[in-house]
Every structure is written in structure tokens, then in C-alpha cells.
Design brief:
The complex is a heterodimer of chains A (about 220) and B (about 190).
Chain A (H helix, E strand, L loop, with lengths): L1 H14 L4 H13 L1 H24 L5 H27 L3 H7 E4 L19 E4 L5 E9 L3 E9 L4 E3 L7 E8 L2 E11 L3 E12 L2 E11 L1
Parallel strand pairs in A: 2-9
Antiparallel strand pairs in A: 1-3, 3-7, 4-6, 4-8, 5-7, 8-9
Helix pairs in contact in A: 1-2, 1-3, 2-3
Chain B lengths: L9 H10 L3 H11 L3 H17 L1 H5 L4 H27 L20 H18 L3 H12 L4 H8 L3 H18 L12
Helix pairs in contact in B: 2-3, 2-5, 3-5, 5-8, 7-9
The chains are: A alpha+beta (about 220), B mainly alpha (about 190).
Chain lengths: ~220, ~190
């Protein structure tokens, strides 16, 4: 009976994972049973061999190897991160509709379907001389550092705080997930579906998105 | 929520600082999972690339060791699945996956070293006959000293499953190595 118990509990017995009482009973049995004593010794031998294998089979490379691996990873990782973002964030009308919302009142609300033309370009209608906040939401899969964001405005539409400027450009970083850019626009002239052009550039890559502006 | 203001270059430095202490252990894990040193190099490198892409996540972790191992393990499993599909095409060419790392540490000239080398080679052949899941678990636990809960965190398998695989792997090794004896031929 005790031999069977040891067979069942051999792993835990050798690992020292049995409760004290159970271990004590098996200790007593092993002391008297030559066959079980050999089983335990064989198991311990196998464990020591596996440990020896662990030490012998993996000679560690030197620091130079690790430094070069880090260097390559940073270069490749940064490139792939940029490429993935450009593909998923601005890869066409469907992708863009997921990655970029335009909100005419509350932030992070998708536009009224009636304001989105069939072509998939978001649209906003403004009243002349009345400031209107348009929230642009950029969805980035991973952080993007030092991206260049440029906003080009249609004629007669200005960005609050930048009078007389049709083009405003600055460097920014995007966090993973949704990044909100509120733009307060003021129309001084009528506009009939003119395009606001938002362009994000990172290194040699870049992508554009458009918002149709109507001012009445 | 507004646009962030991370400065260029800080990510690279942080990446190195956060990763470096874990690299030897991560490299060993790659060797344990992969079939050859070349595959281990690839797995290790690809893991670093993946981690770089998830640097923001890494920054938030207080104990990144398990997370890093998990990233590597998931990549390994993905590669395995891909390989399983590819293998359907190459099996006719007689190519089967290799097992074990290329070459054990060099044995010395004396008899004890030669015997040790032979025993380790036998063990390596026995390990190669285990199923993938059993082989990984027994190597992580018994050769590398990972705890059950650590293997649970890496593989995503419940502790009970890990323990049961470990038990079956050892049982199979005992069957495959019935004549393996210590240097003096005794256990007493």
C-alpha cells in the first residue's frame, strides 16, 4: 500500500511539497523499502541531471550580443510601429472612419450619420462668425513620438488663436489609444464643402485626412 | 486627454534600462523553447522587437519578468502554429523539427566529463521524444528552476494542467532513461 502511495506521490515527495504528516509516513516507508528507496534516488538523480542539462546547454552570450540585439530591436520596432500606425490609422475611407472621428459638440461621439457624406469624409456645418469646436480624434495603436501635425484650412476659415493663418503646423506626440485634438474654427466667409486637410508625418512617412467644411 | 509630450530618445534609453536586467534569463528561455541556437536567436530578437512596440505597457509593470516571458512564449506558440502549417508541405522532404540546442557545453578530457557529456546527450534525446508542452514544462521547471505559478503565468495554462504535464513528462523520461545511472553505477 505504501509503495503505491509513493508511486502516486513521488513528484511531490521529491519536491518536498507534501504535508508534514504524509511526508513523515512516506519517509518511514522509504527507510524500510529498498525498491522505493531506489525509486526516490533515481528520481533525484533525474532531477539533478535535468538541472545539469540546464546549466550545460545554454552558454550565455556576451554583453556585445545583448547590446546589438537591443539596438536592432529598437530600430526595427520603431519602424514597424510607424508602419502599423500608418496602415491602421489612415489606410483609406473605412479605416479612417474608425480611426478618426469628427465631433461637433460633445467629445468622442461619432458624427451624426447625416453629416457624413457617402464618400466617407466627415463633414461639419458652421455658422458664419460663430466659433465652432471640432474635435479630431486620432487613434494610435502605439505611442508615436515627435510626429508633425499640419492643419490646412479652407479659404475663409481660421483657427482660433491663429488669425490670418491658413496653415498651422507643430510637433506633437500621440499616446496609444484615442488622442483628442480640439480645434476651434471660425468662418469669416461662406464655404461650400471645402476641405480641411489634417496631415500627420513621422519621419519619411505621412498620411492625410480631410474634413468637409460648410459655412453658411 | 490631449496630445502627449514624450521626447524623442527617451523611449530608446528606457527600453534598454528596463530590458537589460532581464536579458540573460530571457535568452535562456528562448534556448529552452527553440529547437536550435539559430531559432533561439530569432525568437529572442523577435521578442525584443515586440517588447519595443509595447514599451508603454512595459513601463507600467512593477515585475516585468513574467510579462516578458509571456510575450516570448506567445511568439513561440505563434511561430509553432505557423510552422505546423508549413510542415505539411515539407514533411515529404523528410524534414522534421530538430530538438535541443546545438551542442552542449564542451566536455573536458577526463572520464567524468566524458560520462557527463554522454548522459546529457542521452537526456537531450529523451527530451526530444516528449511532446512540445511536456518538454517545455519540464525544462522550465526542472532545468531552469521556474516555479509552477511562473509557468502558469508564462503559458496561460492553469496550475493543475502545468503540474499534470510536468508529472507526465517526468514519468516519460523515467521510461525513456531506465538505465541511466550515476557515475558509480549505484543510487545508494
Amino acid at each position: 500500500m505504501a509503495c503505491l502511495q509513493l508511486t502516486d506521490k513521488l513528484d511531490d515527495y521529491v519536491d518536498g511539497a507534501l504535508p508534514a504528516a504524509e511526508r513523515g509516513a512516506l519517509d518511514a516507508h522509504v527507510a524500510e523499502c529498498a525498491s522505493c528507496r531506489e525509486s526516490v534516488a533515481r528520481e533525484r538523480w533525474l532531477r539533478s541531471l535535468l538541472k545539469d542539462y540546464g546549466d550545460a546547454a545554454v552558454p550565455l552570450p556576451d554583453d556585445e550580443y545583448f547590446d546589438a540585439a537591443l539596438e536592432r530591436a529598437a530600430a526595427v520596432g520603431a519602424r514597424q510601429r510607424r508602419q502599423r500606425w500608418l496602415m491602421t490609422g489612415f489606410g483609406g475611407a473605412v479605416a479612417a472612419s474608425l480611426a478618426f472621428w469628427i465631433v461637433t459638440s460633445a467629445p468622442l461621439v461619432t458624427p451624426d450619420v447625416n453629416e457624413v457624406p457617402a464618400a466617407g469624409i466627415p463633414a461639419v456645418t458652421m455658422t458664419l462668425a460663430e466659433p465652432r469646436t471640432v474635435n479630431l480624434v486620432f487613434s494610435a495603436e502605439a505611442a508615436l513620438e515627435d510626429a508633425r501635425l499640419t492643419i490646412e484650412l479652407p479659404p475663409g476659415v481660421e483657427l482660433e488663436g491663429f488669425p490670418g493663418r491658413q496653415r498651422v503646423s507643430w510637433t506633437t506626440s500621440l499616446r496609444p489609444g484615442a488622442n483628442l485634438l480640439p480645434l476651434t474654427l471660425i468662418a469669416s466667409e461662406k464655404a461650400d464643402g471645402e476641405l480641411l486637410h489634417a496631415r500627420l508625418e513621422l519621419g519619411d512617412d505621412g498620411s492625410s485626412f480631410y474634413v468637409r467644411i460648410t459655412a453658411i | 486627454m490631449q496630445f502627449g509630450s514624450n521626447k524623442s530618445g527617451s523611449g530608446r534609453g528606457q527600453f534598454e534600462r528596463l530590458l537589460k536586467p532581464h536579458m540573460p534569463r530571457l535568452f535562456r528561455l528562448a534556448c529552452r523553447l527553440a529547437d536550435s541556437r539559430a531559432d533561439a536567436d530569432d525568437l529572442f530578437q523577435n521578442t525584443l522587437v515586440r517588447v519595443y512596440q509595447r514599451l508603454d505597457e512595459l513601463r507600467t509593470l512593477t515585475d516585468p519578468a513574467s510579462w516578458l516571458s509571456r510575450v516570448m512564449y506567445n511568439l513561440f506558440i505563434d511561430d509553432r502554429r505557423r510552422y505546423a502549417r508549413e510542415r505539411l508541405r515539407v514533411v515529404e522532404e523528410g524534414r522534421l523539427p530538430g530538438r535541443g540546442i546545438d551542442g552542449l557545453a564542451a566536455a573536458g578530457a577526463d572520464l567524468a566529463d566524458v560520462l557527463r557529456g554522454e548522459r546529457l546527450a542521452l537526456l537531450q534525446r529523451a527530451l526530444a521524444q516528449l511532446g512540445e508542452a511536456q518538454r517545455v514544462v519540464v525544462l522550465l521547471h526542472d532545468a531552469e528552476g521556474y516555479k509552477i505559478r511562473e509557468i502558469e503565468a508564462i503559458t496561460g495554462d492553469p496550475a493543475g494542467t502545468v503540474k499534470s504535464r510536468l508529472h507526465r513528462a517526468r514519468q516519460r523520461l523515467r521510461e525513456l532513461l531506465p538505465d541511466l545511472l550515476p557515475d558509480d553505477g549505484t543510487f545508494s
